[in-house]
Amino acid sequence: MLKEHAATAAHAERVKKISHAVKSFSEQGIAFRIYHGSSNSTRAASRQEVVDISKLKNVISIDTTNKTAVVEPGIAMDDLMRYLRPYNLIPAVVPDFPGITAGGAFAGTAAESSSFRYGYFDRTVVSVEIVLGNGEIVQASPAHNADLFFGSVGALGTLGITTQLEVQLIDCGRYVEVNYIPVHSHSQALQMFEQAEDNVDFIDAIMFSNRHGVVVEGRLVEKLGAQPVTRFTRAKDPWFFTHVHKKIRCGPATDTFHCLTCHWTQHSRTYRQDSTIMSELVPVEDFVIRYDRGVFWMAAYGWAPNLWNRFTRFFLNFMFHTRFQYRVVHLVGGMPHIVQDFAIPEHKADVFLHYLHNDFNIYSLWLCPIKHDARAPMHTAQTCTEHTRYLVNIGVWGSPNYGSDYLHGDNYDQFVENNRKLEDKVANVRGLKWLYACNYYQETEFWRNYDKERYDELRTQWKADRLPNIWQKIRRSQQDLRLVAFGQWLMALLILPD
Ligand SMILES: Cc1cc2nc3c(=O)[nH]c(=O)nc-3n(C[C@H](O)[C@H](O)[C@H](O)COP(=O)(O)OP(=O)(O)OC[C@H]3O[C@@H](n4cnc5c(N)ncnc54)[C@H](O)[C@@H]3O)c2cc1C
Questions:
Q1: Ligand 1 surroundings by CB, under 6 angstroms
Q2: How far is CA 290 from CA 36, 172, 211, in A?
Q3: pLDDT per residue as tens digits for the range 256-272
Q4: Does the keyword Transmembrane helix apply (predicted)?
Q5: Which end of the chain, C or N, has fewer beta carbons within 10 A?
Q6: Which atom of ligand 1 lies nearest, measured to the CA of 160?
């Protein structure tokens, strides 16, 4: 108890300093941004006056009865999980990358394969403490200052600085029992999301082509059964996506079919020939960040298959974690292929996937169902009708037609054009983009997707005028990487792991 009091008092002291800094900027009429020490957004950061909140990365208290944790916003998911381990608890939604912070996940958009049950990470936040644009410290929750609470979700900090969050936790055993279910079309994967049984705790899918994919179902379990245990976090472990790929049967490439993962792994001949469900146990900590090594599959891009093998993966392991990869992206200012996440209403997901296949042919694709809740005006869920039960998060990270990135293939104009086509199509199916990525909208196009009037009202009401608005934060498209100076590339390649 004493420890908790001390943590609360130390937190109050840190927040007081932040509040003073904000108040001082506000009184001098200086616009400012927030610095929290890391970012999983891929947009380049802009230079402006900053309020440094990087010291806010502590756990303040754990309530094991109500299963909640009071945390500061800068706590990263892996640190929070480590802290919770002795209590056999985990956050109800653990966004996939270990470096994602509680504050970034609330102010940005974050989800994972437990989101079919709990919704986005923000829906597992019970209450928040926010420093407003004038330095005032307020509390908000779905029951108290609800407009500020929901308004802040997905608003990228443009209504104020989140300085504390109470996060919902769930019980967990030591393992996740994972079932790998082969599917033969996008529709089949979508159907399986709809039919997920009540005892399923996690569900998502990887589509390796329009004909081959795997739905991954997980159940939290207490005891070690007879199944084998597989891990994904150590240098000697497999990357999750190649491990999943071995669960399906891929035929040889033809004019109309090609599996990029077969090409990389050079393993297609040895794949299993049947379509039965395979099961194994994965330690909880390995399961929830299973996509970290390899950044799903993006860290394999650019490697010649014969150089990307178990030895290079082992010895260069430090380079393949998301934290390292993000540092490179931030140093060079972008990525040479399309990197976008879309939230598409369930009844339009098939249409959108067909469009993606016909017009882009980008694989692999990540599919993840997310429970629908439209209470946050700046959120990816707000364009859906009330009948939408869930959204499908579609992760589109690659180059069209199995092509190489635009540094070697299509030109940069084509790359921009492709991103704009996707933005158009998403609006067409009443879905929304996740705003961590680069954006190519014109301002009027962007605001067509959101309720600007309501958002501006909220900003006035909650004194956010000194903070940039969401359009000002997201409007950057990425630079043409061919113009990046050689020294910048070199520095990016030479940076050492944390
Ligand atoms: C290839 C790829 C795959 C991805 N896959 C997933 C995925 O599977 N699941 C998932 O959840 N996400 C995924 N993301 C997106 C990413 O997780 C989100 O963008 C997330 O919001 C980033 O969290 P962060 O802590 O790094 O926040 P940041 O990027 O640092 O912050 C996000 C925004 O919130 C603001 N902010 C941060 N902290 C605060 C605060 N305390 N108060 C006010 N505002 C604040 C920042 O200014 C910024 O505008 C993916 C991204 C990429 C590139």
A1: 34, 36, 38-42, 53, 73, 95-97, 100-101, 103-105, 107-112, 156-157, 161-162, 295, 298, 339, 341, 395, 397, 436, 473
A2: 25, 17, 24
A3: 777 888 877 776 545 55
A4: yes
A5: N
A6: 43
